[in-house]
Amino acid sequence: MIASAAVVVVWLVTALAVGARVDARAARRGAVIGAAAAFSLSLAAIPVSSGTATAVVCSAFCLAGLLVAALSPVASHPPRVLARALALVGLACAFTVVRVEVVDAALWAVTAAVAWSGARDRRLFAVYHVPSVLLVLAGSVVPSPAGDVLVLLGVAVRAAAVPLHSWFPRFVARTPTGVVAAFLLPLGLVAPATPLAAAVGAGAALVGAVFAVVQTDGTRAVAFLLASANGVALVGGARPAAAVAATGLAMTAAALAARRGPLSLTAPAGDLARTPRLAVAYLGFGLALAGFPLLPGFADVHHLLAHPAGFVVAALVVAVAVDGVTVLRGFLGLFAGRPEDTGERDLTPVEHGAVAVALVLLALGGLAPGLTGW
């Protein structure tokens, strides 16, 4: 617990330091240094932690935070916005320090307040997330099973489970991606492990996958892929590899949009030969999120197929398959265009370093799960 608390302190101190900067590029460099320090500390804490599972989740959150710090576009993530994203990562790690429902509810409220301060459409966000916070707070003090139902309703709002999803595509489109990705990290830790939660999550995963595959805008497709992944989290709880993969995919799409502008999937665009690192990052994180074989997401999904409810299993199978189609469609639509010299830059060395670390660990988590705990 002490080690995880130290990780939280590092994140919050880094957020304060970054928010005090004036120059956006200097702020991002400081964010990467602080994120790397927090991730290293979280890895060192795993062997001495009394709760190894939660320590691994904390390390995954820290790795996701490193991706947020390294891939956040400077134009859309000035120092104060980037600081909010880093604070949300630190608060996500705080969920792993003390596993008490009342503490979870308090952190749920704080993370919603931080995300609200970084959202551009604050009124719409408040309409959905004030009830979410109140439901989780009430569920933390009401005895089960009624309390579990209240918590599930509150978590389903943040998970963008249909029909509570209308706020989410606009939130993703109009809010800095680093804030979006960090805001979603603690979902699996708060969702109750009940049959009702599994049914709601399976339905959300399936509907999110169907919505994602029909999108013509790359950013909206990623938004619904995240919603589908959130649904799986309601079924299976916290999944370290999925947290890293979802964050990596969202941040890669944000980095690409910052270079190219709107991401249209109506016709092939981009050039794989000119941006190979961006392409590999998009495909690698996307396939890991979709549960491709030999990646850790596959083991997660395989484990969930043992669920006793037939509807849950069937919905997850279809959702995972459709998510894979969406990822491949996005990859071909964004990187299989004609070779034209548009001046589009590939990942910078700092961005590439963070992506390489994350993809290597995801690959190890699929090939040798015992090495990473994933």
Describe the 3D structure:
75% of the residues lie in helices and 0% in strands. It is mostly helical and 374 residues long. The protein has one domain. It is globular. The model has no long low-confidence stretch (mean pLDDT 92).
User: On the 0-100 scale, what is the average pLDDT?
Assistant: 92
User: Looking at the structure, what is the overall shape?
Assistant: globular
- Give the terminus-to-terminus CA distance: 20 Å
- What is the rounded Rg? 19 Å
Helix % is over 70%
Strand content: under 5%
Low-pLDDT stretches are none
Counting structural domains, the number is 1
Kindly report the oligomeric state of this protein. single chain
| Main sheet record | none
Structural class: mainly alpha
Number of strands: 0
Taken in chain order, the helices and strands follow as HHHHHHHHHHHHHHHHHH
Q: Compute the number of helices.
A: 18
Question: What are the SSEs and their pairings?
Answer:
Blueprint: H1 2-19, H2 24-45, H3 52-71, H4 79-94, H5 101-118, H6 122-141, H7 146-158, H8 167-174, H9 177-184, H10 187-190, H11 195-213, H12 218-236, H13 240-260, H14 276-290, H15 296-304, H16 310-335, H17 349-367, H18 369-372
Helix pairs in contact: 1-2, 1-4, 2-3, 2-4, 3-4, 3-9, 3-13, 3-17, 4-5, 4-9, 5-6, 6-7, 8-12, 9-13, 11-12, 11-16, 12-13, 12-16, 13-14, 13-17, 14-16, 14-17, 15-17
